[in-house]
Write a structure and sequence with these properties.
The protein is globular. The longest helix is centred in the middle third of the chain and has 22 residues. It is an alpha+beta fold. The protein is about 30% helix and about 20% strand. Strands 1, 2, 3, 4, 5 and 6 form a six-stranded antiparallel sheet that branches. A two-stranded antiparallel ribbon has the order 7-8. The two termini are about 35 Å apart. The chain has a domain of about 160 residues: Beta-Lactamase (2-Layer Sandwich). α7 crosses α8. One of its GO terms (biological process) is retrograde transport, endosome to Golgi. It comes from Aramus guarauna. InterPro entries: cDENN_dom, DEN5A/B, DENN_C, Tripartite_DENN, uDENN_dom. One of its GO terms (molecular function) is small GTPase binding. This is DEN5A protein.
Length: about 280
């Protein structure tokens, strides 16, 4: 039986520099998109501990749900704000385990990956030229349409070559994740945000990062039913509360976000459908 720990796994997903850039077929790869808009396969880079007997690690499910859209690349010109999301893994026996992921962007330090991205852009631009340049023998027509009579379409390169290895800094998405037996969303979000802050801060945290991860995995227990728990994060205290057996089940998600996403009228309509026992399908990207 589970020993009642707050979290079972700490997971890191992202770019595997050894396998390089692999198209993510599950995300519906579209080669007509520019390389920076394509998605690439992410991998589970590390997890700790390796395995726990009461919650076997499902690498495929965790990897896919941590980064459902695969790897994303950006340059210094793009917005790179961290994004948080949660997920649930339901097993065949009906048991559940919960995941909470913080996805952020870090600079690509591998020269091979940067060169591969540059090569993809050269290939994309060449294919665009072939597909969109009308066959003609009229040199004047060529000059007037491209603005360059030397065979190089400067306007097209400026438009589509939005990554230049000599000019731009390449960033790739990376994810840190907690796998937990209960859905303490707010607490897990704070843990991950403080860990990310410690990594990106110019000043190192008071203790090594490994000690905070060890603490959350081995020293922080699940709060008893009907009790709250306060434990230390990297930069401040974190509080979570577990409802008693006589209360409604744990639902640690802000209802405000539902209204922000759907609007008041749609929420009222959904609530009405639920009361009338209609079937409800929520469709999302």
């Amino acid at each position: 039986s589970a020993p009642g720990r707050f979290a079972d796994y700490f997971v890191i997903c992202g770019l595997d520099t050894e396998t390089g850039l692999e198209p993510d077929e599950l995300s519906g790869e579209n080669f007509e998109q520019t390389p920076l808009r394509r998605t690439f396969k992410s991998k589970v880079l590390a997890r700790y501990p390796e395995n726990v007997e009461w919650n076997p690690f499902d690498q495929d499910a965790v990897g896919m749900l941590c980064m459902p859209k695969g790897l994303a690349f950006k340059t210094q010109a793009d917005s790179r704000e961290p994004q948080f999301h949660s997920f649930i893994i339901t097993r065949e026996d009906g048991s559940r385990t919960f995941g909470f992921s913080l996805t952020f962007f870090e600079e690509v330090t591998s020269k091979q990956i940067c060169s591969a991205m540059q090569t993809l852009y050269h290939m994309h631009n060449a294919e665009y030229d072939i597909l969109h340049t009308p066959p003609t023998n009229d040199k004047d027509s060529c000059c007037s349409s491209t603005g360059d009579c030397n065979g190089t379409s400067v306007s097209k390169l400026q438009r589509f070559n939005s990554y230049d290895i000599s000019r731009d800094t390449l960033y790739v998405s990376k994810c840190i994740c907690l796998i937990t037996p209960m859905s303490f969303m707010k607490a897990c979000k704070k843990v991950l945000e403080q860990l990310h802050q410690a990594v990106t801060s110019p000043q190192p945290p008071p203790l090594p990062l490994e000690s905070y991860i060890y603490n959350i995995l081995y020293e922080v227990p699940l709060p008893p039913a009907g009790r709250s728990l306060k434990f230390s994060g990297v930069y401040g205290p974190i509080i979570c509360q577990r409802p008693s057996t006589s209360e409604l089940p744990l639902f640690d998600f802000p209802v405000k976000e539902v209204f922000e996403l759907l609007g008041v009228e749609n929420v009222v309509q959904l609530f009405t459908c639920a009361l009338l026992e209609f079937q409800i399908l929520l469709y999302s990207q």
